[in-house]
Structure formats: structure tokens, C-alpha cells
Amino acid sequence: MGLSPNAGDYQRDMDEHKCNACGSNDLITVTMTVDKQVVSFTACHNCEAKWWFRDGQRVALDSVLDIVAST
Ligand SMILES: [Zn+2]
How many domains is the chain built from? Predict the structure, then answer.
């Protein structure tokens, strides 16, 4: 259908970030770098679930706060 490789990557990324609480893909993601690690925060507009990824791995909020506190 003429999709570029970038478009394919984007679609896969969205699937990975689908809300696993309500299944919505109406999400907001904020990516930041904390102590040289890429940390992203995702929140669901539909049910307000929130979760974090660090280096592509889903992590608990506490572990993110530990990184922030150590800087
Ligand atoms: Zn949700």
C-alpha cells in the first residue's frame, strides 16, 4: 500500500503501547532522558492508566523515581 518503512515502525510501536487496561490506543507518550537512560511515560486518555518504559522495557514507577532521585 506504499507505506514507508518508517510508517511500519510507527504502527508496530503503537501496538506495543496499546493500553493493556482498557485496550484503547488513545495514548499520550512523553519521552525524556534521565541519567543517560531513555525513559518514556505513557498515559491513557480513555481510562487514565499510566505506565513507564526504560530502555524499551516496562518498569514500575518506583524504579523510575529511583533514577530521578539519583541524579
Ligand atoms: Zn486505558
Answer: 1
- For position 37, what pLDDT does the model report? 86
SS3 state of residue 44: strand
Spacing, Cα 20 to ligand 1 middle (Å)? 7
Residue type, 7: A
23-48: b (≥16 Cβ within 10 Å) or e: eeeebeeeeeeeeeeebbebebeeee
Host domain of residue 14: 5-69
pTM: 0.61
What is the whole-number distance in angstroms between the Cα of residue 41 and the centre of ligand 1?
14
